[in-house]
Design brief:
The structure holds 2 protein chains of 2 kinds.
Chain A (H helix, E strand, L loop, with lengths): L1 H22 L9 E16 L5 E13 L6 E9 L13 E7 L2 E7 L2 H18 L2 H27 L5 H21 L3 H28 L16 H34 L5 H40 L4 H39 L7
Antiparallel strand pairs in A: 1-2, 1-4, 2-3, 4-5
Helix pairs in contact in A: 1-2, 2-3, 3-4, 4-5, 4-6, 5-6, 5-8, 6-7, 6-8, 7-8
Chain B lengths: L2 H43 L4 H18 L5 H29 L9 H4 L10 H34 L5 H30 L1 H9 L4 H6 L1 H35 L10
Helix pairs in contact in B: 1-2, 2-3, 2-5, 3-5, 3-9, 5-6, 5-9, 6-9
Classes of the chains: A alpha+beta, B mainly alpha.
């Protein structure tokens, strides 16, 4: 019990360290950073929009202490709507990134790195305690290396105008999954089987989507509703689907293979049918929840936009078309990958585990 | 024919083939889960307090997701218990993250989507941000707890003479591996979803401080981190509950008659 309290204390301390790192790193910023020391509401006024929504428009005066400039204190005006859809109500203690112009300082954006660092601290402290030191370092390394590789590819895509988007992201997907599995599982049969099954199932799912799109002429798919488009949407959507489904399929295959290797460790005298059945049983138990993971992520993200559009007097069918179309498509493709991963993984693993003399480790 | 409809039919057939009747339940579960989400959206739209509606609907969503998946009743029970405990934790963390980070709503990058929409709609978007963060984590929480519990039960079943210490060792091995892969699920999901936004950031030469503080990106990253923290807690608590049950009942946990 005492040990558990120590662990919880450790997590809290690391989280707090992350938070304070974000609170005191303003010296590293080139742009001016300020901290709100006092807030005064100047005026507030009820508003009604053309759809009859009641809201409140407020002007507030912020007294801001500059943290990385010679000027000590400044008074900055901020106006916001109570709904805060695009504006922010600042409170005492908030830190803000500022921009300086001829007529004084303006608010650029809220400083959010303290939240980022605190949550990173919380996650990594927790992982550190939950895993063996070796596994922890490998997982952390995996995330860092994969994020770096991914960002480098995005940077490449963003700077070059004629990049063949899809082939590049296919290669990236193969690389990312191989690296992730190598770091989590180490070099060995387990990692190889999982990688093979992952790539196969992902490939099948994305090919199925491509085939269906080709057959139906992309009828009912609104590629034009994609957000933040800076290039032709269709290849980008394929890339998104590919990378997005990869993790889930890897998870599914990883769980099945891990479960079957667990059986192998407990007792090595098992037949193909044992493994095949156990694999399908593990797969079946998590297939529903895993599909739900991606479904919930996609649907949660649409909630604010759906509510905003409802309040703007749009009807449900238009809203579904505008906000959920691509999300549903991606969820269905991911679900296909997850479902097909079960027989693919169970078959490959069962075959290899029962092949004579294949595994001794 | 509508491309999405065709893919949905393909999915239904695959689920039937791979999962049989249980596969059908999964499909049914996805549709069923749209109901609490629909109710949540409608109630919030009508002006109900989001922070009251959210926990209730979240528990409903978890229950549907867990109890409609195939598995032993006891596995589902332990999964549900750990998921609800973790839900409470994530609710608190999401509230704190929103309070300190002002993560709600839109920015100039959304101008295209927001064209013609009134933003003074009288619903506090900071609560909507909390809804997004918590709901995104729900699936991952349930999945991680389910995976670790199902695997541990599988080990207990296939190994007649397993001891408590042996189970604990297996729990650590399985928990570690599931942690690794489950975290990658969210990680890749987040990376994939944000390709267009990141390309945008790079193309318009956003500064490093915008990468670290910009609302849209940080919101996505925070949502992902909360999901990962959810997975971690979920696995830890599920292992604890399985060991606890095994400690009390031994291999009796495999009996399904007591439910």
């Amino acid at each position: 019990m005492k040990q558990n309290w120590q662990k919880i204390l450790f997590v809290i301390v690391i989280t707090a360290l992350g938070y304070f790192l974000g609170r005191f790193d303003s010296v590293l910023y080139q742009q001016p950073v300020g901290q709100v020391t006092a807030v005064k509401t100047l005026s507030s006024e009820s508003t009604t929009d053309e759809h009859g929504n009641q809201d409140e428009s407020v002007d507030q005066q912020l007294r801001v202490k500059l943290l990385n400039r010679k000027d000590k204190e400044k008074v900055i005006k901020n106006s916001y709507l109570s709904s805060q859809a695009e504006t922010i109500r600042y409170q005492k203690g908030d830190q803000i990134l500022l921009t300086k112009s001829d007529d004084g300082y303006q608010i650029d954006m809220a400083k959010r790195d303290n939240v980022l660092f605190a949550l990173l601290g919380l996650l990594f402290a927790g992982l550190y305690l939950a895993m063996s030191r070796r596994k922890f370092s490998f997982l952390a390394l995996s995330i860092v290396v994969n994020a770096g590789l991914f960002l480098a590819t995005i940077l490449w895509d963003a700077t070059s105008r004629s990049l063949p988007v899809l082939p590049v992201f296919v290669v990236l997907a193969l690389l990312l999954s191989a690296l992730a599995l190598y770091f989590v599982l180490g070099w060995g049969l387990q990692a190889w089987i999982t990688w093979l099954a992952t790539c196969l199932a992902t490939l099948l799912a994305v090919l199925a989507m491509a085939a269906v799109i080709a057959v139906t002429g992309a009828k009912g798919i609104h590629f034009e509703t994609m957000s933040y488009v800076t290039q032709i949407p269709q290849p980008v959507f394929y890339a998104q689907a590919l990378i997005g489904v990869l993790g889930a399929v890897m998870d599914e295959s990883g769980d099945i293979v891990a479960g079957l290797f667990g059986l192998k460790r407990e007792s090595s005298e098992r037949t193909f049918a044992d493994y095949w059945q156990a694999g399908r049983s593990i797969g079946r138990e998590i297939l529903g929840t895993l599909t739900n993971v991606l479904f919930m992520i996609f649907i949660a993200e649409t909630v604010p936009m759906v509510i905003l559009m409802l309040r703007n007097g749009n009807n449900w069918s238009y809203i579904l078309d505008q906000t959920m179309n691509l999300g549903i498509l991606q969820t269905v493709v991911s679900a296909l990958g997850i479902v097909w991963a079960v027989p693919v993984t169970a078959f490959i693993t069962a075959t290899l585990l029962t092949k004579k003399g294949a595994i001794n480790s | 024919m509508n491309a999405i409809l065709l893919l949905i039919i393909l999915l239904l057939l695959s689920l039937l083939f791979v999962g049989g009747k249980q596969g059908l339940m999964t499909f049914f579960g996805l549709f069923l889960n749209c109901i609490p989400i629909f109710i949540l959206i409608t109630l919030v739209n009508w002006g109900f307090t989001p922070l009251v509606v959210l926990p209730i609907m979240a528990i409903l969503i978890l229950s549907v997701a867990i109890y409609l998946s195939a598995g032993r009743p006891r596995v589902l029970q332990i999964t549900w218990q750990s998921s609800v405990i973790v839900l409470v934790l994530i609710l608190i963390l999401a509230f704190l993250a929103q309070h300190f980070g002002h993560l709600q709503g839109y920015t100039l990058e959304n101008s295209d989507e927001l064209e013609g929409l009134s933003l003074s709609v009288g619903i506090d978007f900071s609560n909507l941000a909390i809804i997004v963060m918590v709901m995104s984590a729900l699936g991952a929480i349930a999945e991680a707890a389910m995976a670790v519990t199902a695997d541990l039960f599988e080990v207990v079943e296939r190994t007649p003479n397993i001891s408590a210490a042996n189970l604990q060792a297996q729990g650590k091995v399985i928990g570690e591996q599931i942690l690794g892969t489950a975290i990658n699920t969210l990680f890749f999901g987040m990376l994939g979803a944000n390709i267009p936004l990141l390309v945008w950031f790079f193309r318009l030469h956003y500064s490093f401080s915008e990468f670290m503080n910009g609302k849209l990106l940080i919101f996505e990253v925070v949502t992902m981190l909360l999901g990962m923290i959810g997975i971690l807690c979920s696995i830890t608590i599920a292992i604890f509950l399985v060991e606890h049950a095994f400690h009390r009942e031994g291999r009796g946990i495999l009996n399904e008659s007591d439910l």
